[in-house]
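Q: How would the structure tokens look for this protein?
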Amino acid sequence: MPEGLVVKAHGGYCFVHDGAGIRQCTLRGKLKARGRVIAGDRVVVRILSGNRGVVEEVRPRRTVLSRPSIANVDQAVVVASFREPAPALNLLDRILVHCEAAGLDCVICVNKVDLVGPEQPEETWIQVYRDAGYPTLITSALTGAGVEGLRAFLAGRITVLTGPSGAGKSSLANAVQPGLNLRTGAISPKLKRGRHVTRHVELLSLDGGGWLADTPGFSVLHLGGIARGELAGLFPDFGWAGSCRFTDCLHDREPGCAIRAAVTGGGIAGFRYAHYLEFLREVVAWEERENR
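A: Here is the predicted structure in token form.
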């Protein structure tokens, strides 16, 4: 039986690319009981007539994200925007931590540079992420600026395109490959944020090789399930952590904390550390609820 890639799962069906085309499949009974199949899963398919099939087996997942729900991704391109909506750095850091915990390579794409005047210097927060080691692209889906660089990052890999609603994910996907013709939405004048246009995760085949997952946007992302002792390691710029006085330092109020010293000395951006402390309290609270 052939193996294929689930490109979409919706309405009780999954759509599997088996090398020749996309086949609409149902799940074998035992798989329904074990949990749902998601986009990105590698599956074994029993072929039926009329371009239909039955998923008989799901291969083990290399990576998995819970939001968006997708498996076997190589990298995440996290899209933020200069304007409309303004960059939400707390949500950006949440997404990066979420993807780091899943073992994904992360690329930051700051979109809508066309809304920034040419005389205005690049915003300082962007350099913070470059200094942390994240490849950072500056793009405009409208003018095409930076799109070729983004296309090069996508070639030959399975990539999830993620970020808040309104940042321009679908517009960027259309700019990378115009034939995709994905729906795009405007910013809500009242809420000052994007409207959800993409409703389901779907893997899209790219002409340059690889697959791109267009995903629904969101404005909230919880970090439950990450252990408190692992959180600092998901911030690449917290490289001083090994120099703390105590090996189990959580970088909060402990004496001799190298992370707090680095923040004071300017080696770590204050907003990144503030986000870390917020996330730490969240994961500690989650652990305590789970252990009751």
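The chain has seven helices and 13 strands.

Residues 186-196 have pLDDT under 50 and may be disordered.

Upvote if useful.
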